Amino acid sequence: MAKYLAQIIVMGVQVVGRAFARALQQKFAASRVAADARGRAGHQSAAASSLSGLSLQEAQQILNVSKLSSEEILKNYDHLFKVNDKSVGGSFYLQSKVVRAKERLDEELKIQAQEDRVKEQPTRT
After folding, report:
1. Are the C-beta atoms of residues 25 and 72 closer than 8 Å to each other?
2. Which of 57, 39, 40 has its CA nearest to residue 104?
3. Distance between CA atoms of 41 and 108, rounded to whole angstroms?
4. Cα distance between residue 105 and residue 89, in whole Å
5. pLDDT confidence of residue 58
6. Would you tell me how many other CB atoms lie within 10 Å of the CB of residue 121?
7. What is the pLDDT along the chain (125 residues), one digit of tens a residue?
8. CB of 85 closer than 8 Å to CB of 96
9. Segments in 53-91 forming alpha helices (H)
10. In what helix (H) or strand (E) does residue 92 lie, and over which residues does it extend?
């Protein structure tokens, strides 16, 4: 009786072990695919940051936007650009920061639109 009980326990442990190993393999594969996708987007975003001289977070802070919405970006840009106009006593430096921030966010919107188009394309096997 004890022999059979031990065999059942050993078999159960083996089945659970194999299932756990398969689950880990699937998790690692999914993680690798997600990292590759983020890596491609990250390279484009990093290139845009280096060209504009602003990171995405800095640009969002300057224009006071939390999510990338072209309407919100344009609304805040227009307001900040007018407020910082030199003819009304504003700062040319701040106005140029506002322009650079809008350029950086516009570039990020283009990158996201491009990623969306790539995701929508059917995969060929």
Report:
1. no
2. 57
3. 10
4. 26
5. 92
6. 7
7. 888 889 999 999 999 989 988 988 888 887 777 666 655 555 666 666 666 678 889 999 999 999 889 999 999 999 999 999 999 999 999 999 999 999 999 999 998 888 888 777 766 55
8. no
9. 56-63, 70-83
10. helix 92-120
Length of the chain: 125
Residue 41 contacts residue 118 (beta carbons within 8 Å): no
Q: What DSSP line would sit under 4-51, residue for residue?
A: HHHHHHHHHHHHHHHHHHHHHHHHHHHHHHHHHHHHHHHHHHHHHHHH
Other Cβ atoms closer than 10 A to 54 = 21
DSSP state at residue 55: -
Per the listing, tokens 């987007």 go with 41
The residue written with tokens 């050993």 in the block is: 10
Report field, pTM of the whole predicted structure over 0.85: no
Per the CB < 8 A criterion, the answer to whether 103 and 121 are in contact is no
